[in-house]
Amino acid sequence: MKLLHLPVLAAICVAAPGIASAVTISSAAQLASALKAAKGGETFDLAPGNYGTLLIQSRRFSTPVTFRSIDPSKPAVFSGQSVVRDSSGVRFDAVSFHMPNPGSIKEAGKALALYGSSNISMSNVRAYGSLDGNPQNDGLGIYIQGSSGITVSGSNFTELHRGIGISRSTGVVITGNMIHNVRSDGVVLAQSENVKISSNIIRDFMPVKGDHPDGIQLWTAGTNAPSKNIEISSNLIVGKLGAQMQGIFVTDQSGGKLPYSGITIKNNTVVGAAWHGITVHHTSNASVTGNTVVTIPGSNNTSWIMMRYVSGVMSGNTAKSLPVSDSPNLKQANNKTNTISSSLAEQAIEAWYQANLATLPDPDTIAQSPIGSNDPTVNNGFNTPTPTPDDPVLLTNSAYKMVAIDDQSVQQNDAFSQTSQQLQQTTTGSNTGTNNVLSAVPEPETWVQLVAGFGMVGWLMRRSRSGTRASVG
Q1: CA gap 439, 274 in Å, rounded
Q2: Which helix (H) or strand (E) holds 77?
Q3: Which residue, 115, 113, 359, 102, is CA-closest to 236?
Q4: For 56-82, what is each residue's pLDDT tens digit?
Q5: Strand pairing of 246-250 and 214-219?
Q6: Which of 20, 79, 136, 382 has the fewest CB atoms in 10 Å of its CB?
Q7: What phi, psi does 181 have (nearest 5°)?
């Protein structure tokens, strides 16, 4: 076995705090030795290269241990299904997690999985799949299960089934990330609380027939408790014709037996989504404010902001349609309808950038550059890991199917009900579920230009920071 492909095994012990030190590492064997001896506070400066599969198990550092690439433009790569289990006090900075085509484990494969761990942070990280141009054969980026105090910031997720999955966890922050060219979901969450998902860019999905693609999704399928105290704020979600996803989708598949509470959805911008620009069901003490949803020309659906069985506040939102039903305790104010317009979509994207420049990472450190064939992982391969048993909440086909079925029920019960006459007046054709939004529709030239302009993230941010007004397209 080649040293580059050895798993990095952590000693099974409880570490005492130590004196901070920096150690330069250039091989998997060196890293394994250094990690085994770690007491807490160490920084492992990783030279470019493939370090194989990372396993940190039963290590609890009161002063965090940091894994950091020496050269962020040539990040160290952990290849395979890396795992942090029953551990705490770990930081990852400017490293890559690569899950090549997971083969027989398919969507269950994960580039990095956290189980029962706490105080873990990931910044300027890249998580990606097979890089064959097809995210439909890839696994999940980062999976967080039964964990607390987790932060993912300024990172890049691409060519994956889902970007980030959160299950039965608390105190999770997902902020300032780019999630793109994925098959199904940007961020999916179940049975978790005190989670903040903010200032992320989620775009360019490639779903397959039968998927329920969402920018951000909360569900209760397969759970025994709902999520609560969740903030979804200042995210930019952009879809494209022929492969549209829902924007923000919060529904209870138990039919109201597991209602959410304390859900805040504010200042998000959703452009070019399918029917569910923003949809919230079965939620008490909700706050849905200041969101903008724009339907793009050529779409065969109207993107709405929909509330059903919701109490709380709905104010200052804008969308082509804003249907509300079965929500007598929902206070509504200053919600407005808009038009279907390419220029309006462009303006909404630019406005989001202008409002979020101060909180977004610098374009040189967010790892936004495309991952090309020169990435060392592409040619070096990895040792296929033994699949790890997972919480079925986010991974089972049955749970996923329940969400798709629920989506169809939502459309049947709301889109054509007595309480949604406004929606019927502003849409044409029948609403038949996700198959409808996957239909190939020729994109207008104006929308192609818009998406191309949207891709120039670094250029926009640099111009705006220099005091020059940015434009899109």
Answers
A1: 11
A2: strand 76-79
A3: 359
A4: 999 999 999 999 999 999 999 999 999
A5: parallel
A6: 20
A7: 50, 45
